[in-house]
Amino acid sequence: MHPRAPRRTARAIGAATLAALLLVPAHTAQADTPPPPLAGQQQWPDLSQDYIDGVRQALTAKTDLWGEHLISRPEGPTFDNIKDYLVPVATGGVATGEPDGGALGVSDTGYHYLPLTLPPGDTADTQSPAEPTANHYALHTADGSGITADWHTPCEAAPYTGDYSEAFKARCGNYRQTRFYVGGERFGSDLGRLTPATLQDGYLPIMRVGYRDAAGVTYTQESFAARAPETPSLLSYVKITATGTATARSATVRVNLNDPKNPSLRLDGRKVADGDKVHLLTDGDPTLTGDDLTYQLDLSRGPRTITLAILNNPDRVRGNGASVLAPGKYAKAREAVASYWERKLAGGARVSIPEEYATHALRNLLIQNLVMGWRYSIGNFYEQQYVPEMVDTVSALGEFGFTGDYRANLQTLLTMTKEGGPAYPVMYRNWEQGSKLLATARYHRLTGDDAFVERNLGSLRGYLDDYVSQAAADPHGILEKQRCCEDNWDAGYWTHAQLVSWWGWRDILHVFRTLGRDDLVAAYEPPYENFTAALRAAIDQSKTELPDGSLFVPRELLSGDQPYDTITETRDSSYWNLLAYYGFASGFFTEEENAKLLKYVHTHGGTFLGMIRFNYTGQAIGVCNPDGLAGYEGTGVDQVYGYQYNRFLAVNDQADRQVLAFYGQLAHGFSHGTFMIGEGANIDPCPGKFHRGTWLSPLSANNAAYLKGLREMLVHEAGDEHGTPAALHLAFATPRGWLADGERVSVAGLPTVFGKVGYTLTSHLARGEVTGEVNLPAGIGDTPVKLRLRVPAGHTLTAATVRGERLPVSGDTVDLTGLSGRITVKAAFSG
User: Fold this and answer.
1) Within 13 A of 195's CA, how many CA atoms are on the CB side?
2) Cα–Cα distance, 199 to 364 (Å, whole number)
3) How confident is the model at residue 461 (pLDDT cuts 50, 70, 90)?
4) For the chain, first and last CA: distance in Å?
5) Three-state SS across 68-133?
6) Could you count the other beta carbons within 10 Å of the beta carbon of residue 700?
């Protein structure tokens, strides 16, 4: 037996009391008649006043006005009933006022881009190294306006060198752009005539976008990044097809090569080159004037197509270049991209859910994060590491079966820190170290890879020795004051850093026990227990119990900070909302405290359609600055930190709120059809802007919030207060519609701390039955295992059997404890 941590001082809480605490009180006038969803009725370029007023009414409410309404509906939140509350995210990736600066973003139109590549090997090998110079990406702007390339070439004058990360040091602002013009205007320049971008099969990194020029000619553009044996450079293949009308029987397509090096370009057959450095390959019969390649297309006999291959890094091309665009080669290159990613995805766990768009998001976000690896983003200033956020990103890969990528990227992250650079005189070292301990423990629990822990034991012990030394020297027995985070340089006893450090310390002790390292347990468990007791005392001294029964724990311990009336009323309170969930999800608090913490969040404006609210500038609702940073023009959301909130919901069995968060992010946390999002996304409508903005997309940690949130809905591993895996919950938070009659939910090969898990749930509710084929790890023993069958309202679980033997049931949950291997559960429903 392990000694009981002395933090659990609250009384035991009954189920009825817990339910009462978690219930959000309705503000009757608002709850009965919330503003209707009007986004689907909006017409470019102006938002209606009714839409603006409705969004601002929802933002002003202290509860999640629309979210609570959706939860109260019989079907609960669904994609269809949530999708029309907000207009889409579309802009981002460029700093306002710096359209060609290159330092913060590179999209000169302000529209989001897709960072495309075809790795030259397995992503675990190619995307994980810290040195970035071998990786190349083509940034395809999703409005079809152009492609940015060569942003990744090393150069002497890279922006912000040395101050932020070694990875960013090799990035060069002297990027190249290939810009597309049709009918005398920039492709995509009038968003009212743009057909928004989609992906091949809904998820593969092959983009298709449409446009209609002022004369009525329609254009379709397909583009992707691939490789060809004729050149070492990554290639962007582009195919533009023009279709005329009865009155528009010709078209002009112009391709502008914007290169800050001002090369002397010439057209030599298929090649546009500067000496022996080829920039672009083309078919057709264009003319080259300066840096403009122009095509005159006769559309009188039907559509005409031009095909390009743009070199990401100008280089030699073997032969005359014709073979790259020879008949069938374009299709072969496109198929190579599809095949690469289909093979890679097939190597992970298999998840099948009965919603196509949600499935497309899952697959595309996995592809994005396999490409980004340990990086926060690609193609902008955020192409660097932020260790605390990135451990969620890389762990999500492992949790979906890509454990090789998890291992390789985690190994890189363990070598990284922001400690000691010129921009960091005070560091958030403790938060980093706790995150590394957590990620290492999670990796070991999923894989049993003892060698990885042993290989990094020196670093892990160094983190713990640092903690022991700090706690021993601190007058309160907790960790020393350090910088809060990237955006707050103040030193303090930051709650999230203290609790993440505690969490990582706790979980790595469990790993040491698993390894049989009694010496390490003996060295680090006593100071851990002392730290736990001191941290409990500091939290108890700092927290505030509110009259409504909710609980507030400040972002800085022992600071005297008081509860916020509205969580996002200021910039500082908004940062509380980002960071608080790290501590809440740690397992430090009692069940009663958890319920009270959630009550505070949900009754003081912490979420919007289940997403984490954030107000970067602290400006009032209704005050939106159209010239502000994209995504932060006004109050909005920041789902980078959504996973910890989602996990906190799962720990407290808040299934309906998990579903709300899932659909809220799916519908409003990504660009439609391309699944791009940056760090934050604006909600408050801005004067003169139709679409919502986002800050520096893509963002791997934001993607991970969706991935990990979905996984928590499908499989949740519960732990006890010592961090020991204690229970396995299957399908505990799936949307009720996923088990409507005839539907099926399937998971196979999903790694868990107990071993790989799989199940297939098939609904035959029309005849009162749901069947579950469940594959449990052989060694799961007497670990509590429960399967939840969340079916549409109006049906009641009456019995469940395995091999004719009745199983215990409670509500919609079946107890599978004591079973292992392959079993078939037959569940009977009335109604």
Assistant:
1) 14
2) 9
3) very high
4) 47
5) HHHHHCCCCCCHHHHCCCCCCEEEECCCCCCCCCCCCCCCCCCECEEEECCCCCCHHHHCCCCCCC
6) 29
Nearest Cα to Cα of residue 388 among 558, 552, 488, 504: 504
pLDDT at 262: 86
Q: What is the pLDDT of residue 94?
A: 52
pTM for the whole thing? Answer: 0.95
Indicate if the alpha-carbon torsion angle 724, 728, 732, 738 is positive or negative: positive
pLDDT tens track for 567-600: 999 999 999 999 999 999 999 999 999 999 999 9
Phi and psi at residue 748, to the nearest 5°: -140, 135
Tell whether the model's pLDDT for residue 535 goes beyond 80: yes
| DSSP single-letter state for residue 46 | B
Residue whose token pair is 């990237």? 486
Q: Name the token pair of 742.
A: 């005839």
pLDDT in tens, 173-206: 557 889 999 999 999 999 999 999 999 999 999 9
> Do residues 368 and 700 make contact, with C-beta atoms less than 8 angstroms apart?
yes
How far apart CA 659 and CA 71 sit, in angstroms, is 9
Cα separation, 409 vs 429, whole angstroms: 19
Q: What is the mean pLDDT of residues 625-651?
A: 93
What backbone phi and psi angles, to 5 degrees, belong to 100?
A: -120, 20
- How far apart CA 335 and CA 235 sit, in angstroms, is 14
Kind and range of the H or E run holding 307: strand 304-315
Closest CA to 705 of 679, 738, 727: 679
What is each CA distance from 173 to 103, 104, 157, 309, 376, in whole angstroms? 6, 9, 8, 23, 18
Helices (H), 669-714: 700-714
Report how far residue 634's alpha carbon sits from residue 681's, in angstroms, rounded to the nearest whole number.
9
Strand partners, 693: 91
Per-residue confidence (pLDDT) for residue 24, from 0 to 100: 66
- Count of all residues that appear for the chain in the document: 831
Q: What CA–CA distances, in Å, run from 397 to 142, 391, 409, 709, 775? A: 26, 10, 10, 13, 22
Burial of 202 (0-12, 13-18, 19+ CB in 10 A): middle
CA gap 166, 732 in Å, rounded:
42
Distance CA 591, CA 8 (A): 9
Q: Which helix (H) or strand (E) holds 199?
A: strand 194-200
* Rounded (5°) CA angle 283-227-340: 125
Distance, in Å, from the CA atom of 106 to the CA atom of 754, rounded to the nearest integer, reads 45
- Which two structure tokens, joined as six digits, stand for 657? 């709120």
**pLDDT reported for residue 102:** 43
For the stretch 13-60, pLDDT in tens is: 555 566 666 666 544 344 458 999 999 999 999 999 999 999 999 999
Residue 1 clears pLDDT 60, i.e. is over it: no
Residue 95's closest CA among 646, 631, 621, 542?
A: 631
Residue 725, token pair as written in the block: 């895996």
**Residue 152: is its pLDDT beyond 60?**
no
Q: What's the sign of the alpha-carbon dihedral 771, 773, 778, 783?
A: negative
Nearest to 381 by CA among 680, 160, 176, 163: 160
- Which residues, other chains included, contact 437 with Cβ-Cβ below 8 Å and sequence gap of 6+? 460, 463, 464, 501, 504, 505, 507, 508
The pLDDT score that the predictor gives to residue 336 is 98
Q: pLDDT tens-digit profile of 766-795?
A: 999 999 999 999 989 999 999 999 999 999
Give CA–CA dist 111/196, Å, rounded: 11
Q: Which of 69, 66, 48 is nearest to 58 (CA)?
A: 66
Residue 731 above 70 pLDDT?
A: yes
* Residue type for position 18: L
Hey, what amino acid is at 114? Answer: L
CA-to-CA distance for 603 and 93, rounded, in angstroms? 33
- Residue 77 confidence class, pLDDT cut points 50, 70, 90: very high
